[in-house]
Structures are given as C-alpha cells and as structure tokens.
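Section 3.1: Structural characterization of target chains.
Under the original work plan, the team committed to producing a structural model for every single-chain target entering the pipeline before any wet-lab resources were allocated. The record below documents one such target. The sequence was received from the expression subgroup and is listed exactly as submitted; it comprises 365 residues.
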Amino acid sequence: GVCDCCDGTDEWDTGACTNTCEEAGRELRAARELARQRREEGSKKREAMIVAAQELMQTQKTKIEALRPDLEAAEAERDAAQKVKDEAEEPEKVAKEAADAEWDMAKSDGIEEAKRSLFVHLDQDGSGTLTLDEIPLKSEFDSDSDGQVSSEEAEDVLDRDGDGAVNETENSVDFETFKEHLYNDIQPKFNEHFPQFKDEKPGYPDDVQALINTANDARTVHSDADRKAREARNTIEDLEKKLNMDYGPNREWAQSHGECYESPNGEYTYVVCPFDKVEQKESGRAHSLGTWKGFEGPEGNEHSVMKFDGGASCWQGPQRSMTITLECGVEPEIFNVQEPSKCTYTASMRHPALCTPPSASHDEL
C-alpha cells in the first residue's frame, strides 16, 4: 500500500506504514525556525538599509542643492567662452577663405602652366597645334626603344578614340584638346623635365595663422568650459534620477544600486546588477540578458519581482530577458537560474530587502 498518513493508520492492518509524525514534525519545526531566524536577521539588515537609504537620499538632496550654483557658474562661463569663440572664428573664417581662394587660383594656374609648358615643348613649329609630323621629333615616343619613332608609334600618341588609326580630327590638336585628352598619357614620358604640378598647399601666411591660433585658443577655452558645464549637469541629473527611482516602498534597495551579484551555474556564470543589467558569462565572454526595466510583481506585492529585457538577440530568436523572483535572505544570493523558453530566463534571488519583520509576515515553511 501507499503510506499517506505519517502515523501509519492508512495501513494499520498490515503494519506496512510506520509512524513518522514525530520526525516530520521535528523537520517542519526546524524549517520554520530556520526561516524565522533568517527573516529576523534579514529584517535587521533591512532596517539598517532603510536608515542608510534615507541618509543617502538626504545626502543626495544636499549635494544637488550645493551643485546648482556650480552649474550656473559653469554655464555662465561656457556662454561667455562661446561669445569669445564666435568673435574669434568670424575673422578666422574670412581670412582662411581668402587664403584658400588664393591657393586654389595658384593651383589652377600651376596646373595650367605645367600642361602648357609640355605642349610648347612638343609644338616644334610654334603653330599652336601639335601635329602628327611633330611626334617623331621626340625620342620619348620611341616605345620599343629601337632608336626611332615609327609611324605606328606616332599615330598611337594622337589616336584618341583607340581605333588604331589617326583620323582628320586627330591629326592635329590644339592646346585645349591636348590638356583635356592627351596630357595625362604623354606627361609621364617627360616627367624628368616637365613634372606635374605638385599639389602641396603651403601653410597659411603669418597674419592668417595668427587669427587661427587665436580662434584655436578660444575653442579650447570653450571646450573646457562646455565640458565642465556638462559634467555638472550630468552629475545633478544622475542624482535626481536616483532620487526619483523606485527603490522599494522604503527605498530599501537604494544601496544595492551599483552592486552586482554572481551565481556560478555549470558552464555559465550569471551576473545580476539591480537597476542596471544582467549578464551571462562563458569562457570570458559576456552575453547581455537584458537591462533594468523595473519591479513587476503582482498587485499588492509589486517589489517581489525584478524584470530585465532588451538583451542580446538569440540566433533566430527573441532578445534575451530575465525575470527574477525575490525572497527574504540574510545575504544576496542568486539561485535556480532556468531557461523555460528560448532566450527567456528566470531566476530567484534572496536579499535582505525582502525581509520584513517576522511579526509582520507569515512564517516561511
């Protein structure tokens, strides 16, 4: 038979079931006592956490008020630096644009002059056109290095359409046609004496550089002032965010913001950082299981569940997420990590923040 009753009365006639009630009672009482002790010790820590949270909140409020004048001063300094920067950049811009335009003109003239010099060198009769008869006069066109420029080699120089022959329009070229269609192919043969224009922009004139230096100094001052103002504002906003964050009904979780708890689980280690993120670590690699979304417990017990979502995407699956059920514990402890469905994780966490005094709660079994 099956022994359902601890006193064995369900099999009284056979004596197959022994009386285990006393032993079961001892175990039950021991479990209740352990839970009571755990809750009592944990509740003391919780009370201390609440006191510390209130002190922290007051410290944060005081710090915010102390930082506001610093922020106002930093923003005023930034605005003044902005004005100086604007005043320095305007003449700098005008001077640079003028110098750049002057260089662009010199560059254009230099390129034109380099092309014209080579054209004049090839235009032996100075007629203003380069003819097929003039090509053989330059040994640089002797492609096969046999000591003479053949008719085929000469025609190849002026054959712009690549059909292997020189037609009437290709038989002679003016300077405009030369610089547009022939210069880039011919110039390398004459590079020693007719190099291309070197596009090496010189530094700005001293008067322009002085304006640039003044503007650079103003930009540096403004950048430093802007950084200080942003840091001051970010500090205040971070403190205000923490003041407004849900840390539990008595802010008992406040001190846990910034802490992380690890739980080795086979080949993985799970790292839970309340109010921040959850990670799954494996062989030095970390996968995000989500970032803090908030408390999502049932109505009336909202702070009994933590939710993290928006983690790393699974292969052909959803983004990873984790739901953590909270219970009373003397020390923070992550346990019972599961993956009930693909990339959706659950876990339990013991923490003093859940330890209300024994008199205010049911004993745990």
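Confidence is low (pLDDT under 50) at residues 360-365.
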